[in-house]
Specification:
DNA Excision Repair, Uvrb, Chain A, Calcyclin-binding protein, phosphoprotein, CS_CacyBP, alpha+beta, cytoplasm, 168 residues, Immunoglobulin-like, 33% strand
Length: 168
């Protein structure tokens, strides 16, 4: 029997005992065990397909969410992008990855509460320094620090934003 099947069998049995239990203390113990089992079943990784490309995806876990909400700020040297993600500080550091190029960055947060989160910024308004850029994980937030190539004020983050402002 697979591990998942074992858990499901345990859960069924706990439910049977719960149906028969009359003592409050015993019911409480069984309820706690039932919740633990349900959680464990929920957190079981799905069976892995043989296909390598698929394995790549499933090693990312469930389902990928595009992040659309962020705040940003700038100093002379940095553009700072603040991305709120509840509980992100509990992840291992390698689960929060940012790839920088001179005019873009993308953020990947792996397996946060069973989901992956991505955010991509292409066509940054001005070039950034890949070596000087970094990310910091704070409580419920990722801070992406893009090091400006030149110390100047950016009126917005991306070319697209600039163009849509100019149209207005």
């Amino acid at each position: 029997l697979s591990f998942l099947n074992q858990l499901q069998k345990d859960l069924e049995e706990v439910k049977e005992f719960l149906a028969k239990a009359t003592r409050k203390r015993l019911r409480d113990v069984l309820m706690t065990e039932k919740h633990k089992l349900e959680l464990e079943i929920k957190n079981q990784p799905p069976p892995k397909p043989k296909d390598v490309a698929e394995e790549e995806k499933s090693s990312l876990g469930g389902y990928t969410v595009k992040i659309n909400n962020y705040g940003w700020d700038q100093s002379d040297k940095f553009i700072k992008i603040y991305i709120s993600l509840n509980g992100v500080q509990k992840l291992p550091a390698e689960n929060v990855q940012v790839n920088f190029t001179e005019r873009s960055f993308d953020l990947l947060v792996k397996n946060l509460n069973g989901k992956n989160y991505t955010m991509t910024f292409n066509n940054l308004l001005k070039p950034i320094s890949v070596e000087g850029s970094s990310r910091k994980v704070k409580t419920d937030m990722v801070l992406v620090m893009c090091r400006k190539k030149r110390e100047e004020k950016w009126e917005c983050l991306t070319q697209v934003e600039k163009e849509s402002k100019e149209k207005e």
